[in-house]
Each structure stands twice: as C-alpha cells, then as structure tokens.
Design goal:
The protein has about 130 residues and is mainly beta. The N terminus is likely disordered. Helix content is about 15%, strand content about 35%. The strands form three sheets. The protein has a five-stranded antiparallel β-sheet with strand order 3-4-5-6-7, with helices on one face. A two-stranded antiparallel sheet has the order 1-2. A two-stranded antiparallel ribbon has the order 8-9.
Length: about 130
Amino acid sequence: MTFSGDTITAEITDIESGLQELIHRGYQFVHPCDANGEVLAVVGVRVHDNVVDVVRLNAEDDVVATRLPGTEEDILEPDVWLWRFTGDAVTALTELLALPDERIPGSLHLPETASKGCWVPGRGGTSKWLAAS
C-alpha cells in the first residue's frame, strides 16, 4: 500500500486482492440472483460520511464502480453520481480504491449529515436496508 495525502493506494494485481482490500475497508457484499437462484452480480457497498461507494461486478470485464451522494435511493441505478468508472475488474477496483476516503463537504450541495445506510435490491423484487457501521 502507498499513502498519498488522504488517499491510500492499494496495489491490485488481480480480482481477489481487490475484493480482499474492499472487505478490509468495510465494504459489505450482496449477490443479487435471478428467479432461478443464479447469481447475477457481486455487489459491494460501503456507506461513509455523506457518500456511498458501490462496485458491481457483472463479469471479469464488465464492472461498474460508482461514488454516490448518500441521499440516492437506488444505488444500482442512481440518478446522480459523483464519480463513475466502467471497465475491467482490476482497473475498476484500483480506481475505486484510489478515491479519497474523506467526506466531500458541500459537493453538489450534499447534506452535511452522514448517511446511515442505503437500500439494495434483494431477491424477488424486494429491497434490503444495508446499514452503515
């Protein structure tokens, strides 16, 4: 790991090391499934301060990483995002982990209050509240 100001840069060489670093940083994971129980994606979510960081791994070469305002209702299809990257898993995880960790005061007129969690889609069209720790 490399420290640069408020940013910690992890050296990601493969998907496994990237996912391990996300877990180390407090990401929680859900695995949305289709009606037959087949996993559609691996979704990691971390709520901190006034933002939500989300990574959705659809395939090794199809990953979407996003930083959202804490006020977004649907984290998988947000109306507003502060940062977004799409591409292969190793690059997406590296870019996501390189984001500064601190909250973003006044960014896009976000509320200064901290987010306490977010809704994530569950099985059968239900949603589950993912509380921030």
